[in-house]
Amino acid sequence: MGRLASLIAFSLTVFAGCHPVSRRDPLVPADRADLPLRIKHVSGGIYSVEDGNFWKTNSVFWIGENGVYFFDATYQPRSAEALLWKAMTLTHAEFRGLILTSRHQHHAGGAQAFVDEGIPVLIQRNAAARFEEDWIQANQWLSQSFLHWDRTPLPKLRGAIDKEFELEKGNIKVIFPGEGWSDDNLVVLFKEERMLYGGSLVAYPPLFTAKVDAIKALRALNAVEKLPFDKVISGHGTVVQSRDIFRKLHEYYRDHK
Ligand SMILES: [Zn+2]
């Protein structure tokens, strides 16, 4: 077996062994940063953004009459720039803010593109506490894992969210359900659309690299499940998922206790 073939075989084995996606699933890691984003209108003001680079991650933006909010920033500033360009073609409303549903690079790496446009960046309080240290460490790890990883500049944060943060007169709620997938995981409830954006917590399949306390994850998922929504925009995998995502996640975390 040639070196490349054995490398591929190795990565397939590792991947099949540690997370629930089968080999035939298109969600294999891609060591590239040049794949275009897939942006789709979902419902009401909600648009989904699929970033297939590295390991597939989804994010969201919301367009209202007077303002646009972004929830997560893709992996890299250059993909985030493409996202901002696309949003500019859809509306003349002001870009009011970027809320990062966690400090992790797969959701936060592109944040500098927003800072460059003067868009305020907010994150959960636990993430803000050791933001720089975690950011640098994650960049080191990702540049060792992926040849095409460009180290991402550390964005300046405008503020930190504690338990809950309301936008658009309460029509959009950013909620910290307690530590779950991470100690800073936020979810976003779009009341009018009755949709939830789950970030990394309500994401199936969940990102396999995280060291998650399954009991805490289940507790946070239970809190989120009580919110009033019909569908979920998952932080990974298929973008729009039914409430069945909670059953799958309960099973997953029960098996990983
Ligand atoms: Zn994630």
Please describe what this structure looks like:
With 257 residues, the chain is α/β, with parallel strands linked by helices. The chain has a single domain (30-255), classed as Metallo-beta-lactamase, Chain A (4-Layer Sandwich). Helix content is 33%, strand content 23%. It has eight helices and 13 strands. It has helices spanning 3-18, 77-90, 105-108, 111-116, 125-129, 131-145, 214-225, 244-255, and strands at residues 38-43, 46-51, 57-63, 67-71, 94-99, 121-124, 159-161, 164-167, 172-175, 187-190, 195-197, 231-233, 240-242. The strands form two sheets. A seven-stranded mixed β-sheet has the order 1-2-3-4-5-6-7. Strand 1 and strand 2 form a beta hairpin. The longest helix is centred in the N-terminal third of the chain and has 16 residues, at 3-18. The chain is globular, with a radius of gyration of 17 Å. Residues 57, 106-107, 200, 203, 207, 235-236 line the site of zinc ion.
